[in-house]
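Repro:
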Amino acid sequence: MLHVERLSRRFGGVYALRDVGLQVESGEVRGIIGPNGAGKSTLFHLIAGHLRANSGQISFRGQGIDRLSPHERAKRGIAIVYQGARVFRGMSVLENVMVGAHLRARHGFLGAAFRSSRARREEAELQALARTLLEEVGLTELTDRPAESLPLGQQRALQVARALAANPTLLLLDEPASGLREQERTRLAELIRRLRARGLTILLVEHDVRLVTSLSDRVTVLDLGAVIAEGKPAAIREDPAVIGAYLGSALTA
């Protein structure tokens, strides 16, 4: 599904990533962990296209995507949910999800402006899709609420529904559990398991090692911009290089 080869990105004279390699299989949940400043979010921005690499290559479903814009990568099936709760203020929960479905829209500007029958049909289809996705993430009863009025955990679920509206095959989750309470983390984990069960490939960046190892098929560990370990969750927990990078604390949490 995703192949990253010798990927490097520097800011000034400092490398955020150096010669990073990654291969993710279709349907896999891959955890990406590492201390603060390890390069995790930079890697996500490079895959999504919001940053360009200084060197290296990224292939998605067998095709190079290094020259593609974020919009073009999204059309190919890559969606990202950022750490911060990013919702469209002044719009309802349902409208927020419908915005995410814009890549599926077929009618043009004039059709939308003049409310053609085709545009109305398509809008009804997108609204039905949005309602289905809100049910999937547990927000069915909140469709008409202002998006910004939701608590953080529900805003994160809304972001996931909006990302799913574009029908991705690869979902990047950037620290989705950050700031969530224990009950919200439990619901998030259940959601990720449901998404994996339907065949979605997921990359999960997260500081909560216990959460990552409970959800991931394999875990890649970054430190100072380089991959220091990769393998099954149980092996990662016992890897001396990983324990050293975390000073032993995060792996026993």
